[in-house]
Amino acid sequence: MYEKRERLVKASRDVTMYSKKVIFQVHRLNSKNKESVLEQAERDLANVKMDHVTRVAKELQGSEFWKFRRAYTPGMQEYVEAAAFLEFCKNGRLLTLDDLNESFAELKDASSNDFQLNLLDYLLGVGDLTGELMRLAISSVTDGEVDSAKSICNFVRSLYMSLSLISQEVDDSWEMKQKMEVMLQSLMKIENTCYTVHVRGSEYFPGAVLENIEGQRMEDN
């Protein structure tokens, strides 16, 4: 049992590390390189799944999904965050739990086990997504793409309201409450940025405003 837990922890760490690299890759996109950046990010995410999520799946059978959850949940949350961030930047929509589990169906051939992501890890990963969207919104403003920032703001607001309605029903733990607090902070930062742009005007940004927005982005990174 100890050896299995250690293998899961190691696999989870690798999933986390390589998922973060996918997120960094997606943050490189702009209007000129969007297609190539997203295509590369998709390939990288597929490699994370086949090379590292498969290792998690191989260790889990039946009730072990919950028995060993603490060993692998950090990696799976990070994977959800990366996959959801990529999906939003590509198609402007929220990646669903069904989407993810459908993509994991091919892992059965590699691991012989039917791996399914649980609802709790999905929601916790989606909670982290809002932090990346906050950074993307602020970056959009500094690049002059105000409409994009407003669209992100509306998406995050809707996502926060939806999760607020169901989060306590799914899990009332400290971890979920903390995620909701972080989501609210991200939403408020996006709203404040969009409000600043609205008040000061979208055509001209005084240096102090840009410095404040850029400083906020660097602080959150």
UniProtKB/TrEMBL annotation:
- One protein family per Pfam: Translin
Q: Which organism is it from?
A: Adiantum capillus-veneris (Maidenhair fern)
**What's the source species' lineage?**
Eukaryota, Viridiplantae, Streptophyta, Embryophyta, Tracheophyta
Which terms are listed as keywords in the entry? Answer: Cytoplasm, Nucleus
In its UniProt record, a GO molecular function of this protein is: sequence-specific DNA binding
Q: What is the official name of this protein in its record? A: Translin-associated protein X
Report the GO terms under cellular component: cytoplasm; nucleus
Does the keyword Nucleus feature in the UniProt annotation? yes
| Localization | Cytoplasm; Nucleus
Chief location: cytoplasm
Organism domain of life: Eukaryota
Similarity annotation: Belongs to the translin family.
